Amino acid sequence: MNSMYFTEEHNLFRESLKNFLKKEVVPHINKWEETGTIDQSIWKKFAEMGFFGIHYPVEYGGLNLDLFYTVILQEELQKINSGGFAAAVWAHVYLAMTHLNAEGNEDIKQRYLAPSISGEKLGCLCISEPSGGSDVAGLRTTAIKDGDHYIVNGSKTFITNGVYSDYLVVAAKTNPELGNKGISIMVIDRDSEGISATKLDKLGWRASDTAEIAFDNVKVPVYNLLGEENKGFSYILQHFSIERLVMGINAHARAEYALDYTLNYMSERTAFGKELDKFQALRHRFVDKYADMEICKAYNYSVAARLNRGEYVVKEASISKLKSTKMADEVIYECLQFLGGYGYMEDYPLARLLRDSRLGPIGGGTSEILKEILSKMIIDKKDYKRTV
Prior knowledge:
The chain is α+β, with helices and mostly antiparallel strands. It is globular, with a radius of gyration of 21 Å.
């Protein structure tokens, strides 16, 4: 392991996590993938090990550890071959909980963040909408103040944990005429009257629940507002760095898993009297993809180190997601080909890996959107500054 970033404590944490996943998660993965439902009891076990509170404050039950513990968590979750299970974890910890911690007041942190760390509550983040996708500024869901409540109307889609979560962190327009300057973020309890969720049938990420959610005159107490009213767009932008970097790390980790599995297969599988890893054409194609993975991994680690120091790395994190997710798709496609007919069989891991990986260039901002954001920063010299 790279000693530039990982200490002995990091390595011990990795081994503990791997053992936990092997014992408590891996035996159930195939069932969860088939049913599309994760046994909710696993969340308490995760919490008891401290995995939900890795980088959150001690006063709310967290461990307040550096970002490379998060890197380890994301890498190992990718290596149990269930993108859906991994997504359910990081959507809770790095999407919903990020807003609770950054914008929540003390009351919200006690009511939502602490129970999220302890595994009593599971959250989701609701931004994307049926009409807009990656266009955050164009969202149409409204939250109009009426006395001491907001009345929320609208819909969200592609929401991970959207069916089985206990609360929703929702972006809505509290002042629609202001456009993206009128967006606010608030917490809504799942059992609030007027919320309905429809589970979506996905190509991959089969273990996780992904939903389209409708809000029909949902009453939300004003004290459930996160941060300041009409500041929600800047809050969302502020947290893109961690979201995109997490997806970049996920990508290099699943590519590494695919390469490790494929190399082992090639060393054991024979054709025309010799192992597959002895054919020059296959050897050269393999190392080419391995090199691509290593380049992305090294870049992602460097961005994580900068983010860990408190630097504003929205450009670098966007590059991480853009290039790493593309690389992972290409690596896994090639690895499936190396397995021949067995790569196409569900009894082997590459078929699921291929489906799960395809979400990478789509979720959390499509590659097309990221290219335009990067074009503005690199070509037009637009300077995105820290806003909160």
